[in-house]
Amino acid sequence: MDLQEFLLNLIIIYSAARVMGEIALRLGQPSVLGELLAGVLIGGSLFGWIEETPTLKLMGEVGVMLLLFEIGLESDLHAFLKVGRAATLVAVVGVAVPFLLGDLLGLTLGLSQLQAIFLGATLTATSIAISARALAELGQLKTPDGHVILGAAVIDDLLGLIILSVLIGLATTGAVSWLEVGRSAGLATLMLATAILIGIFYGHRLGDFLKLLNTRGSLIVASVTFALLLGYLSGLLHIAPLVGAFAAGLVLARTEQLAHIEKAIKPVADVFVPIFFVLVGAAVNLSLLNPFEAANRPYLLLAAALGVAAVLGKLVAGLGALGSKADPLAVGIGMLPRGEVGLIFAGVGLSQGIIKEGEYSAILLVVAGTTFLSPILLKWRYARLRA
Predict the structure, then answer these.
(1) 53-60 long-range contacts, CB within 8 A, separation 24+
(2) Which of 184, 303, 194 lies closest to 247, judged by CA?
(3) All domains of the chain, ordered by start, with CATH?
């Protein structure tokens, strides 16, 4: 690819992402769904204006790291973990039940053990951003429901990143080794725990160092470099670089410069992150979703079954809020959206060769469906509670 072709691809990606993202927002939906749809439109299934190249793929992968870095910055572990038992139970059940349902479903449909495990893993995540936005629009963000949902979503993210790291490790071997699972999970957990402890005890010292930087852009360059460094170290340990980027966010979230870093990282992320989501959408093969083709029906059946498992798994998780001041059904509904986290799982699964186009398209349907469904059901639930 020469420079002219590369520039044209970027122009098309950014233009489509912004237009479709704006339309999604005006329809009351997250802009990420608009970016996903933009990819579907300009990808090979419809207009064929772009195709994934190694350079664009690398830019998208950097975008995912920046996204996880940003989520780490926004994760106030002290505030969320104050909800304690209820959030922990909701998170654990919300990971375990969907994972088991997805895994059993995959095995029942004749998928490989690794593919079945991946399907289960894709159902575990909860989108903090989408849940928070839906709760804020309903005025429930600072309520017991909001605290439990967001606290559980933070823990979900931690568990989900560990699972994703394990899956990437398994994909490199092509087999399920419980020794490898334990090693990858242990390393990912150790990295996140170390990041939390460093943030708590040494965050202020890192903040003092950042104060010494006076040249233009020094703060954001140093912060992004730190995220990339931890991502690089994660890769050396054979765990997902996303874990390192998220850990970097957790560390810098404890510094006095947090507000400045958050403000500075947004425009940087806005340049890279849409590339990932547009490429995710562009990888969707719409022809596989045609129900009139007999060969497509297994994938549509998979999407429907995964959708049921995705909803039931999170609604059951809401029972973990029993005994607290939170409403269990509202909590379960608030845990439904997979959003950008689910898209990250799907994109990584396809790029690592864990799943094929058919399974990928089925997962995207589930991600989009749960993301659309949660705000609608939350509005209905709170209307019933007020009645």
Answers:
(1) 53/1, 53/6, 53/9, 55/1, 55/6, 56/9, 56/13, 56/275, 56/279, 57/279, 57/351, 59/272, 59/275, 60/272, 60/275, 60/276, 60/279, 60/347
(2) 194
(3) 60-386 (1.20.1530.20)
Length of the chain: 387
**DSSP H helical segments within the chain, as ranges?**
3-26, 31-42, 54-73, 77-81, 85-108, 113-122, 128-137, 144-173, 178-211, 218-236, 241-252, 258-282, 297-317, 328-334, 339-351, 357-386
Q: What is the pLDDT of residue 14?
A: 94
CA distances from 11 to 1, 3, 49 (A): 15, 12, 11
Banded pLDDT at 104 (limits 50, 70, 90):
very high
pLDDT in tens, 279-290: 877 877 777 777
Local confidence band at 190 (pLDDT 50, 70, 90 cut-offs)? confident
Instruction: Report the pLDDT value the prediction gives residue 10, as an integer from 0 to 100.
Output: 93
Are 186 and 264 contacting, i.e. CB atoms less than 8 angstroms apart? no
Coil, helix or strand at residue 297: helix
